[in-house]
Description:
Blueprint: E1 4-6, E2 14-20, H1 28-31, E3 33-38, E4 44-45, E5 50-51, E6 54-55, E7 60-61, E8 66-70, H2 84-88, E9 100-103, E10 112-117, E11 122-127, E12 138-142, E13 148-153, E14 184-190, E15 200-201, E16 208-218, E17 226-233, E18 236-239, E19 241-245, E20 250-260, E21 266-276, E22 280-289, E23 295-297, E24 311-320, E25 326-337, E26 340-342, E27 347-351, E28 353-356, E29 361-367, E30 372-380, E31 391-400
Parallel strand pairs: 8-9, 15-22
Antiparallel strand pairs: 1-11, 2-3, 2-12, 3-8, 4-7, 5-6, 5-10, 10-11, 12-13, 14-16, 16-20, 17-18, 17-21, 19-20, 21-22, 23-24, 24-30, 25-26, 25-29, 25-31, 27-28, 27-30
Amino acid sequence: MLLLVFFPLVTANLYLTEIMYAPTQVSDSEGEWIEMYNDGENTVDLNTWMIDGKAIGNRSIATKEYLVIARELLDSTDNDTESFESYWGNNNGIWDENFSAIELILSLKEEDTIVLTNNLNEDKVSYNKSLGANKNGKTLERVSLTEWQEGFLDGTPGFGNFSTSKNNGDSISVFVEILNNIPEILAINLTDDADQEGIQIYPLLNGEKIVFVEVLINESDGFQNLEQVSFSVLNQTKNLSFKENSTTTLARFQGNFTLTNTIQAGNYLLEVSAKDTENQTTKNISFSYEGIISTELNLSTFEMSLHSGDAALRSVQVLNKGNIAIDTEVSMQELTSEQGEIFDNKIEVFQDVWLPLANPVFLDLNVAPQNAGEIQFRIQAPQQAKSGRYKGKITITSVESKNE
């Protein structure tokens, strides 16, 4: 069922002219927008006006000016980089385009009524998805006082040919805007070191990991129309090189970047940008940089001379050379000689209190990557110990920290 209802009232020459209610260019919650137009001869103060029940605020709209009201004009503090500006602007984080746009909390539905009013005058439109523009990248566009239709891909925010004038003649003006096709990033492939879902990249223990990137792009105007294909990840920005084309519009690009084992394990985002002579588009892919445990001790031997009944303290530094925080587990092999043995309960490790190494002891060190932690030991010579040279082994095993 087609639903499109208009409520034309005196509107101080302010009109709703374009609606993006189900965008695909960015996520729905961040890409919704409404456009309004001042068809009058005077600037209108919008301080008393509301749209969709929300106050527009202290601003004005000039004569013959379009104003876009975006749900998220600039990227906020959420977990992505999407916004109206990131797609319909130049993605530089500020609004500096050649048409006016503001941010206002919107929540547009597939079937909705939008009201522009100052409680004296209003313009109102009701629509549903049967009119079009439902999750296909297009907008609902007003072409006259009584006519709306599905518009162009991406819409025309800040521009249009809406007019309230009536045609009393025998001719119709024709306006055709030729738009360059936007490059389409079809696929992004990265080095994947695992067979699990998603992309997992494993660090190299003593070197840099080279990650290969391959991108498939469809450029409807011909792949030679592409000026630059690049990617950004971890503060690295690099251009991708042309590899091959399978048709006149479909081409592959390739490149690589490096990851050191000092980069902390976690989830990261790689953004690909494709730019032709007129347009630019971006697409993201996430990957997991896996953890690696690598430690180094600052010494390999404890040497000491003790009398029966004496005790000695020693310490060792554990350097975390991996990319995740670590704890340790310490175990002890009894000290033995031809004269006998010193039991492992006489060798202790410190964590808040002295703990005997009769059994392995877990130490909650939480040593951050590229930092060092200290482990303290106390060795006691029993009163009954016979003289001689005793030998044993302490084993320190590093594990991923439970506190990370």
